[in-house]
Amino acid sequence: MAKQTPPTLPPGPRRTLSDELHALHRRAGWPSLRDLVDALGNGVASRSRIGDVFAHPRLPAWGLLELLVTELASRARRPDPTAEVDRFHALWEAAAEASDKPGGPVDAAEDLGSVYLRSPIEFMTDFREAAAATVLVPPPPRQAATPLPESQRPYTMRDFLQGRLDDLKERIRKTRLLLVERRGQVDNLIELDEVTSRQELLESLGAVTESVGQQFAVHLRANNYAGMKRTLETVLDIQSRVDELWQHFPGEPS
Q: Model's pTM, two decimal places?
């Protein structure tokens, strides 16, 4: 058992989400971070990243929180883990909306010490997200004016995120083909187990990607720029993890 220390948060939706997550963790028997890493699958999330979900004041990405809630709800013997996921999604949405308001919970800023505790992949994910945020500005308010031709329309966060999401889905498709090809070429059980493990992880990442696509559609309909930025962070994180599956595999499938 390993009880996690909750972050110090002011009263509000973000603290409610944190309190409910820690309560679910307790009902699940306080599984350790390493236990949760193993339960989610090798490479899905690092120990420090899962620890941040429990201990960091920043609002966690929904994709990872959804996986954790599903695992904890099953361990807590909740009668319907899906209903528990829906309940947490409502809490997460409330916290996300509150974080969009001036003076809301911390969502992107981190203290310097926490940055150095993150894994290289997580650090580069945040770096790329921050770089994107500096060159992309929120879409201007709608005005009664003649729309610009497609070729002259500003490149917005919506366009950037849609492009990265499309690229990620294509990368997953090509990786799936590569692993199938590799599986047909292996001649020993050790490599077969490795390819099988990567295939299982890829399918998990594919399922999370579909969930992220649904989040993007929700934020797009609501014109929620901050929500799209959070979705972009998740997309870049999944992209890094898919790229890791290519290690030791020369070439790309056609």
A: 0.45
